[in-house]
Q: What sequence folds into this?
């Protein structure tokens, strides 16, 4: 498995331990053929799902990073409760803006579905209050609309595709561990054209840039012994896209790894666990919790070797909701055999993700 | 020079305190009492209010706005909660379902275990942990207490202690027919010590007790930078009928409004105590000035300016006021502390019962009350100070104190007509004030009228004295009597001072007695109409158990007749306490027999919904019988017709009655909470036993109408306890004033009395003369006081009570009590004048006469 699932685990830990037997979650299946826009929508029968947009802006400031993530969790609680507001589906959202040299602004929300929040099961349309991620239109005219309002920052962005969807793994079935049972459904949409507005310090400014959209749902991904993961999604400057991840054990060794490179012309190359490696080059130590994140990383995928250079060292996200937990997620400049801008995610460095 | 002056001032003050120890101490005490009462009332109420809003905050949090239904039977639809949540100006909507449930041990237990914790209803709050964390942190369950999404409830520590339960215990929660068998899975660590609360996940509460697809309230936190008032404004137009967006500040306002009238009334009583304090200062300072007239005249001849003579008396007044006020603050603080320890924060108004507030003194109000005490004593010293300034020195040196300074010497010669016109004008002004409506919902004009009546009484005293004693003087009287009468006629200032003290104190006493007894009689009669059935059953704040209602429907139930009532609350104005909605099982035609109408009953077309409103509601919302009233019923606006106005002494903020049939026709759910029961003839005892058996373990109130009546009246009496105490204090002060002024007048007339004894008046005759004088003054004071008291009683009954509490009643004068009180006071007055008489008989006649040469 991969990212934010762990964010949910502290809250749901006791629930998951007990609920697993009682609740039958759907399992990611290699045989499933994804259909859109239906599969842009939620899959509430799965345990975990997220819609994740990261991007690098050129306006109002070059290399400004932003991200908005909605998580859906089915804790396996109150499933049979006869109430429209039973806490059987819970939504979380994180939003962040990185200003190079200045730091990271972060905000979060949480709500149960149907009580100030909601999602569609037929298309990408998920919201918590006024925070929203919604797809509309068809074909080349389609777009994703993002809205975030917080005291410190706000953005309203329109994301328009320049390329087709990128179905990760085998037609969107993405293996996450040595066992095929550990898998998710995983759809990416790189190279989205960004336009809209960003409000900082009460000042609203026009914003443009490039973004990456991920949508992933699963019920079981992280195997025993895994403590965290490193992940990156890069919009290459030549129009290509690279996604790579690895799952780590407590010694820092890779348990599983995978990468996919789609060239600007659409040719897709997949790299297996043996062809992908992550090597820390430089670390940044969090003054908040002492965690040491390998924010300068050398990543090798087959013939390609790239290095990450964060636009700002401190892009650690310390969330309070539902429990204090920290991870690093931020905009990095990519140099090496490929170049571009991507979002790097490093988890399990501050807290062990041991399930 | 200046230092010398200060020193002189100080010597005079000290001498004054030493020679008039008792009088000064009593004046000081009276000031202290007034300050203490006012200050204590302020402290208790401030603490109770703070406590109440604290409790409110802990349960409700501090939202920027609260979305709620105006009718407590109506709900906020989920769809609206979700719509408002999507407003970018909204940071968080915290939905809440609040209900009351009965808590029992898990099923299978017997009645004796139920008796361990008589099932008084407990507040159950269903909340959404995600939003509650930001808005109502005081309600959050302990983190390690297991998941709040599970089947289970969290209990406040106080509730666990009350129920003698531990975390893990199985409980059954019941509300009407709905039942939830669950488990106490954790505590509420942030609950306040006295909070009796259950908290569970909102979805579980909804699934077990409803309402479906809706919640009780949405508590909102807005984004920073959003102005809550304008945001609420922007939404209030778009809300469905029957819903309201109120500010959290409205709640505090409402709580404050609840006790405002009662508080103001108590403060007026405290003011009365302060006024009597001022009167005592007046009396003592006046006698002091009189007794020292020769002293002052001498000082004047030696160069003490008239201004300094004036200031000296004011200083002496302050010297009484400052320690008095300081003592009052300490006393008031102690009083408030003791009061809240013993009785909680309820001053007898019944508004804050159950709270245990913490008394905290703050600087500004304390200074205010201190200043008030000083001002009262200064005001009392004002006239004597002026009199001292204008004393003609030569005359004072020769013949002593001039009771009337030369400037006003003409007053006695002034035609009676002028005085009469002044009195008539005063009376007209007082009458006019009683016609004015309430100001800021307080009977301020009424209080003004009361003050005018008192002034009127005092002003009329010389006139009455002249008329009465003029008549007396024409009669053949014994020598002591003639001396007394003559003396009063000749030196009316002292007589007036003594009389006005009695006028004020007796008027206040008579008026309170009149008001209270009118009120009590009215309540007594009212209870007859509102308690027609022999037996009553009531559950507090929740529907009656279904089992009981079902059993009552069986033919075996020994009742000839049953009338059911349900309670609701309608919020017609967010800043006012909700109006009580009574859904009563009765036919329209029976209305007149069931409700104590105070006016005409209007016939209403059968196709219209008729409601009957209480007097309080009529006055608060300016309604009239026959008028169409739009009520927020069941989540929508319903046009009703007011069929009549009925008297209600129990719900000060208004009540509206609707027939159960009409309510059901509107789609309401009749959740019975009260029963009026008529046992079958001859089966009264069986009926009580039947009820006891069927209602056991539900924590219901079962009472006979006689018990309810007795309880109501005892609550009534208790709430006027403070009033009685003040009456007693006023009477004591009045009597003391009489004694002090009589003594002063004896001292002033030392030469005259000495002459009398030289002429052959023996001790008994002198005593009789002085006592008779006391009796005459007391008689005049009591007579005028009685007249003023009845007038003030009428103002209290017909103006103050309706305006402050919306209680209307007939005026009943308790003649027996009043006359008995007058006789007792007269007797006490005569006894008090013995004190002065003793002074007269102990005068060393020869010495006095010798020194006079």
A:
């Amino acid at each position: 498995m991969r990212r934010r699932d762990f964010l949910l685990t502290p809250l749901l830990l006791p629930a998951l331990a007990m609920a697993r037997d009682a609740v039958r979650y759907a399992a990611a299946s290699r045989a499933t053929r994804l259909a859109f826009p239906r599969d842009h929508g939620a899959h509430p029968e799965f345990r975990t799902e997220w819609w994740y947009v990261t991007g690098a802006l050129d306006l109002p400031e070059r290399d400004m990073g932003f991200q908005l993530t909605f998580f859906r969790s089915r804790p396996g609680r109150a499933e049979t409760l006869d109430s429209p507001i039973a806490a059987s589906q819970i939504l979380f959202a994180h939003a962040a803006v990185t200003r190079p040299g200045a730091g990271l602004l972060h905000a979060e929300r949480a709500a149960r579905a149907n009580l100030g929040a909601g999602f569609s099961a037929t298309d990408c349309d998920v919201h918590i209050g006024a925070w929203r991620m919604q797809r509309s239109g068809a074909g080349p005219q389609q777009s994703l609309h993002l809205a975030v309002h917080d005291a410190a920052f706000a953005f309203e962005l329109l994301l328009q595709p320049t390329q087709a969807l990128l179905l990760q793994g085998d037609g969107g079935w993405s293996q996450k561990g040595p066992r095929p049972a550990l898998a998710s459904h995983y759809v990416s949409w790189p190279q989205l054209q960004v336009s809209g507005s960003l409000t900082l310090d009460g000042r609203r400014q026009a914003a443009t840039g490039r973004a990456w959209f991920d949508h992933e749902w699963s019920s079981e991904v992280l195997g025993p012994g895994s403590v965290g993961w490193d992940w990156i999604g890069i919009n290459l400057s030549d129009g290509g896209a690279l996604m790579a991840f690895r799952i780590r054990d407590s010694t820092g060794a890779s348990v599983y790894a995978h990468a996919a490179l789609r060239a600007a012309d659409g040719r897709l190359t997949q790299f297996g666990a043996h062809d992908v490696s992550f090597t820390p080059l430089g670390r940044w130590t969090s003054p908040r919790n002492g965690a040491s994140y390998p924010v300068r990383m050398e990543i090798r995928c087959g013939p390609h070797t790239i290095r990450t250079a964060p636009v700002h060292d401190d892009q650690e996200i310390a969330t309070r909701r539902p429990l204090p937990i920290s991870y690093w997620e931020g905009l990095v400049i990519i140099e090496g055999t490929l170049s571009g801008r991507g979002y790097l995610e490093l988890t399990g460095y501050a807290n062990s993700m041991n399930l | 020079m200046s230092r010398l002056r200060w020193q002189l001032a100080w010597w005079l003050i000290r001498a004054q305190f030493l020679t008039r120890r008792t009088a000064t101490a009593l004046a000081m005490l009276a000031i202290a009492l007034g300050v203490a009462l006012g200050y204590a009332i302020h402290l208790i109420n401030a603490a109770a209010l703070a406590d109440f809003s604290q409790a409110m905050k802990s349960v409700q949090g501090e939202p920027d706005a609260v979305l709620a239904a105006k009718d407590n039977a109506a709900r906020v639809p989920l769809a609206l909660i979700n719509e408002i949540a999507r407003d970018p100006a909204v940071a968080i909507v915290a939905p809440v379902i609040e209900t009351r449930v009965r808590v029992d041990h898990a099923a299978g237990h017997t009645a004796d275990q139920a008796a361990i914790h008589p099932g008084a209803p407990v507040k159950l709050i269903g909340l959404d942990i995600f939003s509650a964390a930001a808005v109502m942190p005081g309600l959050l369950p302990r983190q390690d207490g297991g998941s709040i999404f599970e089947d289970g409830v969290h209990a406040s520590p106080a509730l666990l202690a009350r129920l003698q339960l531990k975390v893990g215990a199985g409980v059954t929660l019941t509300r009407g027919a709905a039942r939830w068998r669950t488990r106490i899975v954790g505590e509420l660590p942030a609950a306040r010590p006295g909070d009796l609360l259950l908290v569970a996940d909102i979805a579980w509460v909804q699934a077990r007790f409803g309402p479906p697809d809706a919640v009780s309230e949405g508590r909102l936190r807005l984004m920073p930078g959003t102005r809550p008032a304008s945001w609420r404004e922007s939404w209030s137009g778009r809300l469905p009928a029957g819903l309201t967006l109120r500010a959290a500040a409205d709640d505090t306002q409402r709580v404050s409004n609840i006790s405002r009238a009662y508080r103001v009334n108590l403060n007026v009583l405290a003011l009365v105590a302060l006024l009597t304090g001022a009167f005592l200062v007046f009396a003592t300072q006046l006698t002091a000035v009189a007794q020292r007239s020769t002293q002052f005249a001498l000082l004047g001849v030696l160069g003490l300016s008239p201004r300094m003579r004036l200031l000296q008396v004011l200083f002496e007044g302050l010297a009484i006021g400052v320690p008095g006020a300081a003592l009052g603050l300490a006393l008031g603080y102690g009083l408030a502390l003791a009061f809240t320890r013993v009785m909680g924060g309820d001053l007898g108004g019944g508004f804050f019962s159950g709270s245990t507030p913490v008394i905290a003194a703050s600087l500004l109000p304390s200074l205010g009350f201190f200043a008030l005490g000083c001002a009262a004593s200064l005001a009392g010293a004002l006239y004597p100070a002026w009199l001292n300034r204008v004393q003609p020195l030569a005359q004072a040196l020769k013949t002593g104190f001039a009771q009337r300074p030369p400037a006003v010497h003409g007053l006695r010669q002034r035609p009676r007509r002028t005085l009469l016109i002044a009195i008539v004008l005063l009376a007209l002004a007082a009458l006019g004030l009683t016609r004015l409506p309430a100001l800021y919902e307080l009977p301020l004009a009424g209080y003004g009228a009361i003050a005018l009546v008192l002034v009127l009484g005092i002003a009329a005293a010389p006139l009455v004295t002249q008329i009465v004693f003029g008549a007396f003087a024409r009669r053949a009287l014994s020598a002591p009597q003639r001396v007394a009468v003559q003396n009063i006629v000749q030196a009316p200032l002292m007589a007036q001072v003594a009389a006005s003290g009695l006028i004020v104190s007796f008027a206040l006493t008579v008026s309170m007695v009149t008001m209270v007894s009118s009120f009590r009689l009215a309540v007594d009669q009212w209870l007859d109409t509102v308690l027609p059935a022999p037996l009553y059953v009531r559950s507090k704040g929740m529907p009656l158990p279904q089992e009981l209602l079902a059993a009552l429907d069986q033919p075996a139930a020994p009742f000839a007749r049953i009338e059911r009532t349900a309670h609701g609350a309608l919020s017609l104005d967010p800043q006012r306490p909700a109006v009580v909605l009574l859904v009563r099982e009765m036919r329209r035609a029976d209305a007149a027999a069931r409700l104590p109408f105070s006016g005409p009953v209007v016939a209403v077309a059968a196709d219209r919904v008729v409601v009957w409103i209480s007097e309080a509601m009529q006055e608060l919302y300016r309604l009239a019988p026959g008028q169409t009233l739009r009520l927020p019923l069941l989540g929508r606006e319903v046009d009703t017709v007011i069929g009549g106005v009925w008297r209600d002494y129990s719900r000060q903020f208004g009540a509206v009655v609707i027939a159960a049939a009409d309510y059901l026709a509107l789609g309401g759910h009749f959740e019975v909470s009260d029963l009026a029961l008529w046992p079958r003839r001859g089966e009264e005892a069986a009926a009580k036993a039947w009820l006891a058996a069927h209602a056991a373990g539900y924590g219901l109130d079962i009472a006979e109408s006689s018990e309810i009546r007795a309880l109501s009246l005892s609550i009534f009496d208790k709430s006027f306890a403070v009033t009685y105490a003040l009456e007693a204090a006023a009477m004591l002060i009045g009597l003391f004033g009489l004694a002090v002024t009589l003594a002063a007048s004896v001292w002033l007339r030392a030469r005259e009395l000495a002459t009398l004894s030289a002429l052959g008046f023996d001790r008994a005759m002198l005593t009789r003369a002085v006592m008779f004088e006391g009796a005459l003054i007391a008689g005049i004071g009591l007579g005028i006081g009685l007249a003023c008291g009845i007038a003030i009683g009428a103002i209290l009954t017909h103006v103050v009570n309706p305006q402050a509490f919306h209680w209307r009643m007939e005026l009943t004068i308790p003649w027996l009590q009043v006359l008995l009180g007058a006789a007792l006071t007269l007797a006490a007055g005569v006894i008090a004048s013995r004190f002065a008489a003793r002074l007269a008989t102990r005068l060393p006649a020869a010495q006095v006469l010798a020194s006079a040469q």
The interface with chain B takes residues 14-15, 75, 77-78, 81-87, 90, 110-112, 114-118, 127, 129-130, 132, 147, 149-151, 202 of chain A (CB under 8 Å).
